Amino acid sequence: MLKIVGKLRWYPGDASVEIRQQDLDKIAQDYGVSISIDEVKGRHFVTDREMVYEETMNGSLEEITQTVVTLVADTEHGFRSCVRQLIDKYKAPRTPYSTWGSDERAKKIIAELTDEWDGWV
Amino acid sequence: MKVLGLVASQRKLGNTEILVKEALAGAEDEGAKVEMIRLTDYKILPCDGLAPCVFGNTRCNLEDDFNFIVDKIFETDGLVLGTPCYILESTAIIKQLIDRVFSINFRSQARGKPAIIIVPYATRGWTPFAFLQPNILLLFLGMAVIDRALIHAQAVNEVVLYDRSLARARGMGKELATAIKTGDASYRGESGVCPLCHDRVLRLLRDNETVECGVCGIRGKATLKNGKINVHFAEQDIQRQRFSMENIYRHFTYHIKPSRDYFTKTRAVTKEKRERYREYLKTGDK
Questions:
Q1: CA nearest B264 in A: which residue?
Q2: Cβ contacts (< 8 Å) between B211 and chain A: which residues?
Q3: B280 touching chain A per CB within 8 A
């Protein structure tokens, strides 16, 4: 059975609460999936009138500051249940490219669930 | 001390212009140097959505008077925004400005400056969203709305019949000038439900528990007590308001700019798939 691999990307300020591995572990345990977290720190910062800000226009979307949660599931049921939990807890990631890096099946499932659960409407 | 009045009505010397002039006269009484701009006298094109302002980190490049208007707002110390209420909300030129101030990103030079909103309207009960667009515009610019007024007047120049309304506008102009002089840009108008924009327009979210001020993006809980609806916004939720400089910066930095890379990554697929729409219902070039 092919595994379903999904990546969800929350950018600074997007998640309603801090995303922590220990909380993800509980969700993973409940649904028999594997969840890992990757805190990406952006590399391109500029200073403009005493403000330091990240310039995200020219680089790759994988390299900007974000929290990437990777789910790997053996079953669609497990994957769906997990994504629903994540949306409930953190609100859905906000951009069309928030699932970049997911396999196509994962992207479809996440799109369906975020339209349904969202957290923003 | 400079105060700028913006009139969002096509009518010359209509109710909106008269009320804005009263407010400016009030500011002038307090020592302000005043100026008025009728927005509809200027060319303000719709945003074309191509966003060189974002992807080129430049000012808006459309050839019209928008940047002139923005520079006037940035130069002033306080702002009077007057718009009539047309079909439940302000006139279209306010929305046009909202779309275009996108080009300012988080770099507004009007942040913290006080403003007032004056809205003449014709029919009671037809003004639920009267302050929505003016609030969006001013809050995006980071301005501090210190007061706002709905003024009941309908026919051309009718407001001159109502001394109380004229006095209200004048008083607001005086308050605006005082706010500039003292540095106290706290809100002193009628209280609303949202602690930020002071409006009473809330969204009930799908969970049927959470309410949200759609303008400010802050969420709270609505409860029923003694038959009255009570809405509470926790401090941490108020901090998440969408128009703080930090959150506008985040919006552009993480929600908009990376779309360029996503566009590049998906270009081959979108280019192929869009072709089926090219000839279907094609409209002729004019």
A1: A60
A2: none
A3: no
| Contact flag B254-A60 (C-beta cutoff 8 Å) | no
Contact at CB, B205 and A60, closer than 8 angstroms: no
The residue in chain A having the minimum alpha-carbon distance to the alpha carbon of residue B53 is A57
Q: Choose the mutation target among A48, A57, A67 for the interface with B, i.e. most B CBs under 10 Å.
A: A57
Model confidence over B110-146: pLDDT tens digits?
Answer: 999 999 999 999 999 999 999 999 999 999 999 999 9
Task: Please name the residue of chain A whose CA is at the shortest distance from the CA of residue B203.
Answer: A121
Q: Output the pLDDT for position B286.
A: 58
pLDDT at position B245: 92
Topology at the third CATH level for domain A4-116: Alpha-Beta Plaits (3.30.70)
**pTM for the full model?**
0.94
**Domain topology for B2-182:** Rossmann fold (3.40.50)
Q: Domain residues of chain B, as ranges?
A: 2-182, 202-238, 245-278
Question: Is pLDDT at A49 greater than 80 in this prediction?
Answer: no
Average pLDDT, chain A: 93
Instruction: Label residue A50 by pLDDT band (50, 70, 90).
Output: confident
Q: Give dist(CA B235, CA B238) in Å, integer.
A: 5
Residues of A in contact with B205 (CB under 8 A): 121
